[in-house]
Amino acid sequence: MTRRGVLRLVALGVGLVATSAAWGAAPADEIRAVLSAQVAAWNRGDLDAFMQPYDHTGSLRFASGGTVTYGWQPTLDRYKKRYPDKAAMGVLNLEVVDVMLPAADAAVVFGRWELRREHDHPHGLFTLVLHHTADGWRISADHTSAAEP
C-alpha cells in the first residue's frame, strides 16, 4: 500500500472514532439524564412523573416478578398498587452499568436497582429498551428482576 493510501486509512479511522465517540456520548448522557429524573421523581413519591419516560402506548412491555404487563396505563396502575405510599416506595438508587446504542434512535440499558426502606432492602437488575422520538427518549420495554433477599 502506498503512503497516500495509508494516510487515507488513518484519516478514515480517526474520523470514524471521533464520530462514534461524539455520537455515542450524547445519547448515552441524555438517557442517563432521563433515568436520573426518574429516580428523583420516585424519591419524592411521584409515580406519575416517574412513568413519563415510558412509551405512552399499549405496546409498552413491563416484565417483573414472573408477570408481564402491556401498556402505559396498566403499568402505572401496577406501580400504584404495588407502591401505594412513600414508605412502600422507599428510596431508589439506579446504577447504569452499560448503555448500548445499536442505532441512532435505539438504546439498550443494563443496570442495577435498589430500594432502601425501613424494614428491607430489595435490589436487582434491569434491562430497558429505549427509542428516540420527537419527545425525547422513551422506554418501550422494561425487564426488572429482584435478587434473592
Question: Would you give an account of this structure?
Answer:
This protein has 149 residues and is of the alpha+beta class. It has one domain: Nuclear Transport Factor 2, Chain: A (Roll), CATH 3.10.450. The protein contains 4 helices and 6 strands, in the order H-H-E-E-H-H-E-E-E-E. The protein has helices at residues 3-43, 47-50, 72-82, 86-89; strands at 61-64, 67-70, 91-103, 106-116, 123-133, 136-146. Strands 2-1-6-5-4-3 form a 6-stranded mixed beta sheet, with helices on one face. Strand 1 (61-64) and strand 2 (67-70) form a beta hairpin.
In round numbers, the mean pLDDT is 87
> Would you tell me the structural class of the helices and strands?
alpha+beta
Shape: globular
Q: Assign the CATH topology.
A: Nuclear Transport Factor 2, Chain: A
Number of strands: 6
The main β sheet shows up as: 6 strands, mixed
What level of helicity do the residues show? 40-55%
| Succession of helices and strands | HHEEHHEEEE
- What proportion strand? 35-45%
Overall tally of domains: 1
Q: Taking strands numbered 1, 2, ... along the chain, how are they ordered across the largest sheet?
A: 2-1-6-5-4-3
CATH class: Alpha Beta
Number of helices: 4
Structure keywords:
six-stranded mixed β-sheet; alpha+beta; Nuclear Transport Factor 2, Chain: A; 149 residues
